[in-house]
From TrEMBL:
InterPro entries: YjdM (IPR004624), YjdM_C (IPR013988), YjdM_N (IPR013987). This is Alkylphosphonate utilization protein. The lineage of its organism: Bacteria, Pseudomonadati, Pseudomonadota, Alphaproteobacteria, Rhodobacterales. Belongs to the YjdM family. SUPFAM superfamilies: Prokaryotic SH3-related domain, Zinc beta-ribbon.
C-alpha cells in the first residue's frame, strides 16, 4: 500500500515524491520536510534545510541578499547571532553586522550548529 503524499506547497503540483526525510517537487524543485502533521510542529519556523529555529539561534546567510532601497548587499556566509522569531513574511528579526536591524526570511538562512 502506498502513502498519499501532499501536493507541493509552492506550486500545488500533485507529482511530489519522497527522498529520505524530505518531500520534493519535480516541477518547481521545491523541497520540504515530511512531517507527521502535528500543529505545533507545522507552526515551527524552519531554515532552508529544515532545521527548527528558536529565539537566540545563530544562522548564516546562504545567498547574497540585495537590500531594497539601498546599494548594500548581505553577502553569502554572513553569520547572524541572536535571532528573534516574529510573525509575518520576514519571520526573523535580527541585527546583521555592518547593516543593522533587519528582517530576514527563514528560507535564506541556515542554522549554525555550535
Amino acid at each position: 500500500m502506498t502513502d498519499i503524499l501532499p501536493p507541493c506547497p509552492e506550486c500545488s503540483s500533485a507529482f511530489t515524491y519522497q527522498v529520505d526525510a524530505l518531500l520534493m517537487c519535480p516541477e518547481c524543485g521545491h523541497e520540504w520536510a515530511a512531517t507527521g502533521g502535528d500543529a505545533a510542529e507545522a507552526a515551527a519556523v524552519r531554515d532552508s534545510v529544515g532545521n527548527v529555529l528558536v529565539d537566540g539561534d545563530t544562522v548564516t546567510v546562504i545567498k547574497d541578499l540585495k537590500l531594497k532601497g539601498s546599494s548594500s548587499v548581505i553577502k553569502v556566509g554572513t553569520k547572524v547571532r541572536g535571532i528573534r522569531l516574529v510573525e509575518g513574511d520576514h519571520d526573523i528579526d535580527c541585527k546583521v553586522p555592518g547593516i543593522g536591524q533587519i528582517g530576514l526570511k527563514s528560507q535564506f538562512v541556515k542554522k549554525v550548529v555550535e
